[in-house]
């Protein structure tokens, strides 16, 4: 396996570094459903806008977009249904898209050091989630009381609570 880096410097808010492991596939190939050998994507910034083309890479299992200036994740992130790890820590994200609940294979959701106050009830569908890091976020009491120490048991409590909320208001 080889490691490749690509540099983009169009403007100050643009993608500065995109590191992908394995072979390259065009966005058109990804849109056509062609399977990629990519399994891990690591973006480093300062990125302000999430490159939506990444959401067409449906076969990636790890997405690391930490230490950027992202204020939100696009709804299209829900297309990444094979994702096992999503690390969006150390950004400026205030809320997660409802489509986050479509990441049903997700095992780890790392969101520490953002501006998240609440989680969408759709997170209740993340039944395989075992690691949830929400440290250093201004969490509302309704989530903070379930999150507690962030242990695996606490993660299950949060998921159960969010699932209950989802069905209560639907």
TrEMBL record:
<protein>
    <submittedName>
        <fullName>CCR4-NOT transcription complex subunit 6-like</fullName>
    </submittedName>
</protein>
<dbReference type="InterPro" id="IPR001611">
    <property type="entry name" value="Leu-rich_rpt"/>
</dbReference>
<dbReference type="Pfam" id="PF00560">
    <property type="entry name" value="LRR_1"/>
</dbReference>
<dbReference type="InterPro" id="IPR050216">
    <property type="entry name" value="LRR_domain-containing"/>
</dbReference>
<dbReference type="Pfam" id="PF13855">
    <property type="entry name" value="LRR_8"/>
</dbReference>
<dbReference type="InterPro" id="IPR032675">
    <property type="entry name" value="LRR_dom_sf"/>
</dbReference>
<keyword id="KW-0677">Repeat</keyword>
<dbReference type="InterPro" id="IPR003591">
    <property type="entry name" value="Leu-rich_rpt_typical-subtyp"/>
</dbReference>
<keyword id="KW-0433">Leucine-rich repeat</keyword>
């Amino acid at each position: 396996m080889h490691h490749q880096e690509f540099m983009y410097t169009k403007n100050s808010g643009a993608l500065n570094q995109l590191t992908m492991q394995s072979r390259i596939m065009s966005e058109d190939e990804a849109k056509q459903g062609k399977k990629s050998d990519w399994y891990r994507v690591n973006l480093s910034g300062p990125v302000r806008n999430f490159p939506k083309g990444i959401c067409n890479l449906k076969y990636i299992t790890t997405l690391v977009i930490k230490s950027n200036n992202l204020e939100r994740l696009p709804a299209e992130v829900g297309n990444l249904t094979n994702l096992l790890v999503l690390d969006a820590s150390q950004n400026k994200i205030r809320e997660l898209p409802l489509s986050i609940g479509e990441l049903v294979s997700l095992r780890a959701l790392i969101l520490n050091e953002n501006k998240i106050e609440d989680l969408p009830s759709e997170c209740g569908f993340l039944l395989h989630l075992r690691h949830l890091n929400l440290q250093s976020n201004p969490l509302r009491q309704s989530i903070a009381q379930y999150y507690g120490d962030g242990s695996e048991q606490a993660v299950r409590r949060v998921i159960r609570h969010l699932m209950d909320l989802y069905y209560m208001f639907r």
